[in-house]
Amino acid sequence: MDSGDVSGEQSADPERLGAPAGRRLVLGLLAAGAAGVLGGASIQQGLSAVLGPIGNRDPTGLVGLLPVGNTFRFYSVTSSVPKRDASDYRLDITGLVDAPRTHTLGDLRAMPQQELVRDFQCVTGWRVPEVRWRGVRLVDLLDDAGVHENARAVRFTSFDGTYSESLTLEQARRTDVLVALEMLDGPVTHEHGGPVRLYVAPMYGYKSIKWLAGIELTKDVVPGYWERRGYSIDGWVGRSNGRDDDPTG
């Protein structure tokens, strides 16, 4: 998600939930989270009012996993992720391309930028509405590198060293798929997967890989981290977020 998503943003690994807590508290928080997933936005807002004051002193770490209010939940599949900035960030475009590329953060900032205002929907049930995203269209980077005729998919890797994702080439060429440099009216923070992350507008958050480091053109779709654990390869949200819009628009 992300950077509020299981891409890719918080792991519910019980070994990383913090100090021991009472069984009643843990079960209560898990039940509240399930209610938020099943009940949608109205219950999320109620949970926010009740749980917000205890979030900063939650001994379990579970409050941060609940779908509370219109805010991102933070997930990672690793215990830590190195920070990168303009001095050491690199994005490699490799595989079935005519001209492999390595882009610095400065390179990406100098390219034409696309802005989108779309929701961010996590597969676990919570949503952040009308997030402002800005970055380079993935299709522009692919065209710059030159895609081989036998390429049918795109594989993405994270500099967390573990997470990966994939799109079909058709999906990757949609104009609502961004290599995002900004979100929420500012640079993508480290916690949200910065300095560069993917944003796939019409799909669930786990498709929008954080801490983006590599883009590889491949012959076939390579299942990503969560697909290998049972998630759908085609993570469409549904009719919302431009699922049925013209992808070439």
Describe the 3D structure.
This protein is of the alpha+beta class and 249 residues long. It folds into two domains: 23-65, no CATH class; 90-229, Alpha-Beta Complex (Sulfite Oxidase, Chain A, domain 2). Helix content is 18%, strand content 24%. It has five helices and ten strands, in the order ααββαββαββαββββ. It has helices at residues 23-39, 41-51, 105-110, 138-145, 169-172, and strands spanning 90-95, 101-104, 114-121, 127-137, 153-158, 164-168, 177-183, 186-187, 197-200, 212-218. The strands form two sheets. Strands 2-1-10-5-6 form a five-stranded mixed sheet. Strands 3, 4, 7, 8 and 9 form a five-stranded antiparallel sheet that branches. The radius of gyration is 18 Å and the shape is globular. The chain starts with 22 loop residues before the first helix and ends in a 31-residue tail after the last strand. Mean pLDDT is 77; it is low at 6-69.
Taken from the alpha-carbon principal axes, the silhouette is: globular
Instruction: Report the CATH C-level class of the largest domain.
Output: Alpha Beta
Q: Mean of the pLDDT scores?
A: 77
End-to-end gap: 27 Å
Element order: H for helix, E for strand: HHEEHEEHEEHEEEE
Report the major sheet.
5 strands, mixed
Helix content: 10-25%
- The count of helical stretches stands at 5
CATH architecture of the largest domain: Alpha-Beta Complex
User: Can you say what the CATH homologous superfamily of the largest domain is?
Assistant: Oxidoreductase, molybdopterin-binding domain
State the CATH topology of the largest domain.
Answer: Sulfite Oxidase, Chain A, domain 2
Strand order of the largest sheet: 2-1-10-5-6
- CA radius of gyration is 18 Å
Percentage of residues in DSSP E strands: 15-25%
Count of the domains:
2
Q: Give the structural class.
A: alpha+beta
- According to DSSP, the number of beta strands is 10
Note poorly predicted spans.
6-69
Protein name: Molybdopterin-dependent oxidoreductase
Pfam families: Oxidored_molyb
Organism: Nocardia colli
InterPro entries: OxRdtase_Mopterin-bd_dom, OxRdtase_Mopterin-bd_sf
